[in-house]
Specification:
The protein contains four helices and two strands, in the order αααββα. By secondary structure, the protein is an alpha+beta fold. The protein has a domain of 31 residues. The model has no long low-confidence stretch (mean pLDDT 80). The structure holds zinc ion.
């Protein structure tokens, strides 16, 4: 495609943008400004408009230490809410059965102890002292 043919494919708007770009202005078309579409992205971080190919890391680190300043205390003592009463209800009965204990003999030291049956696994039980060392 020759340059003439290429230019014929452009709309008037695109030609304007191309001219601006060639003359060193920014690429943004005047028409696209303040349209609904551009307003949609206003909350986004601004992206640098001209990409100059320089992707080097810019040292732009703000100092981390800053003085902490307390704001004004806005708490107001409104007194006790005495009109609110704890409802008089029946307590939930604590009727869970006692844990099932089982007598086990330590396979290492021979000490007999009672432990929760749910904690006994396998044939060779070891007491607390024998597990530790
Ligand atoms: Zn033991």
């Amino acid at each position: 495609m020759s340059m003439d043919e290429f230019i014929k494919t452009l709309t008037e708007e695109q030609k304007q943008a191309l001219l601006r770009a060639l003359s060193g202005g920014d690429f943004k078309s005047e028409v696209s400004e303040d349209t609904e579409d551009s307003a949609r992205w206003l909350h986004e971080e601004p992206v640098s408009k001209a990409v100059d190919g320089d992707f080097s890391m810019k040292k732009n680190i703000k100092p981390r230490r800053s003085i902490v300043q307390a704001g004004e205390n806005t708490w107001v003592d409104e007194g006790e809410d005495r009109h609110i009463k704890t409802p008089d209800i029946k307590r939930t009965p604590r009727n869970r059965s006692a844990p099932k204990m089982r007598e086990v003999k330590c396979s290492a030291c021979g000490k007999v102890s009672k432990i929760n049956a749910g904690l006994v696994f396998g044939e060779y039980y070891r007491c607390e002292r024998c597990i530790g060392g």
